[in-house]
Amino acid sequence: MRRPHGPLRRMIALARPRGARFALGVLAGATATAAGVGLLVVAAWLIATAATHPPITALSVAVVATRALGVTRGVARYLERLITHDAALRTLSDVRVRVYERLARTEPIHRFRTGDLVTRLVSDTDSTQDLLVRGLTPPLAALITGAGVVTVATAVLVPGGALLAAGLLLGGVAVPLIAAAAGREPGRRRAAARGALSTALVDALHGAPDLVAYGAMPAAIARVEEADADLTAVERRDAGLLGLGAGASALIAGLTLWGTLLLGVTAVENGALGPVPLAVLVLTALAAFEIVAPLPAAAARLGAVRAAGARLFDVLDTPHAVRLRPARPALPENGLRIRDLRVRYGPDEPWALDGLDLDVPPGRRIAVLGPSGSGKSTLADVLFRFRDPDHGTVLLDGVDVTTQDPDVVRAGVSGVPQDPHVFASTVRENLRLARPGASDEELWDVLERVRLAADLRATDGLDTEVGAHGARLSGGMRQRLALARALLVDPGMLVLDEPTTHLDPDTRDAVLDDLLAATEGRSMILITHDTARLDRLDEIIVVVRGRVVQRGTHDQLISAPGWYRCGWLSQSAHSDDPTLSCR
């Protein structure tokens, strides 16, 4: 089997559409570095020649060249920064879009913890820019400029050119390779430590009310402090590695400079080299190490960039839980029809749904009832196209939903998931997520239908800020807002997954009354573990361990022994009625 490319190669491949821009940036960087070296070389020649008191006209070309090289260096460095950063930021924008598109399919969100996912989305994605700007452009520019400088030094004195080439290879290749190898494991730990710190912080902030209520906040703060200490230790070791790389480069540069000076002095004594070329050769060697100076630090960070890239591609490579299957002929029927639906979460896992059959004709309202872990939310995931069936068929108006794009299916099947997200914005913006072009009149109309309009008119109306995760709204108001958003889509079928979870009985009953009133005449599947208000639905399906164990109306099910009657008795005021029994 062909092995996938490593994270660094894959990250560089992301910049392929802008390869010409990066090449131009590398050329500009090489020009700037060469101009800097040339400026010092010409200045050395100018000073050494001026000491011999030549005619001023003999120095005019060098004076003009010095000015030209100074201007060229500044302009080329500016162009290099402009071109490479522009290309890198555009590439980074493309990567962010890819990550957002992948996250929009929900599978990676369920796989990673929130804080860790934030780090992957921000810091790990930003590593693409760091690699392209600091890890790709400088080595290529150094290769071009270094070859030119060695050629010039060799033309002046062959042994001096050979020594300079050896020094540049040591400082620009050997030291960076050693730094890269030494920084690989610290870089991996740094990326992991950053993700751990972000996870601990997000968990502590999001769970602060519950942590305070249960006295667990000190333990949460201790986890944050421990993660921060781990990251600090890794950063300290990383800084030490950078210092060693810089020191090694400075040592090699100094030794090369002294070696070049000794070779040059010896050549002058032997008459093979003049005093002016000696000055040119020595200052060329001094300036040449500007070329390779950034490389050890960039190489030492490659370990962190590689680890960040691996974490980034973990998100992008998450297998799709939903795939389009070949189209099939549509059947002449309306509504929802499910036959022998089987779903499980792994090859060795038990079936979450095991042969479920369900029919929801147009306008019919059905409850799917069962204990926690019975497969109810798995059914909602299949209907919302968050997961494919492993076996069986799901037909919507005669069309197999697995042959349709998920967004097309969601236009016909919408609803409220078990934990609907409310964005930290206004009521208007939360509603317009469902229909961006909706007018204020349409928004007020749907709010009236879910009985939320009166509460909002008492505040700032559609401009009411809901707070982070809807914190400024009550639990019942958040559920009504989520229902209003679902109704704005105007789907053919509503799927409501545990819409009253975590609500007190009075709020639960009020929300259910509003739900049933708002969905009058509309096809609906109510997924719940609560028996309240189910007498107003057309049919009740009881699911236990992924199988349908009972079905019928409320009156039919409470008149027969079974799971439903036991649940209804335990949740109702009839538990003491001697005429009724679970058995």
From TrEMBL:
Top-level taxonomic group: Bacteria
Membrane topology: Multi-pass membrane protein
Gene3D superfamilies: ABC transporter type 1, transmembrane domain, P-loop containing nucleotide triphosphate hydrolases
InterPro entries: AAA+_ATPase, ABC1_TM_dom, ABC1_TM_sf, ABC_CydC/D, ABC_transporter-like_ATP-bd, ABC_transporter-like_CS, P-loop_NTPase, Type_1_exporter
Domain ABC transmembrane type-1: 23-304
Keyword terms, alphabetized: ATP-binding, Membrane, Nucleotide-binding, Transmembrane, Transmembrane helix
Major location category of this protein: membrane
Segments passing through the bilayer: 21-48, 54-72, 140-158, 164-182, 241-264, 276-297
Domain (ABC transporter) ranges: 336-570
Annotated localization: Cell membrane
CDD domains linked to this entry: ABCC_MRP_Like (cd03228)
PROSITE patterns to which the protein is assigned, alphabetical: ABC_TM1F, ABC_TRANSPORTER_1, ABC_TRANSPORTER_2
PANTHER family xrefs: ATP-BINDING CASSETTE SUB-FAMILY B, ATP-BINDING CASSETTE SUB-FAMILY B MEMBER 6
NCBIfam families, per database record: CydC (TIGR02868)
Protein name: Thiol reductant ABC exporter subunit CydC
Lineage: Bacteria, Bacillati, Actinomycetota, Actinomycetes, Pseudonocardiales
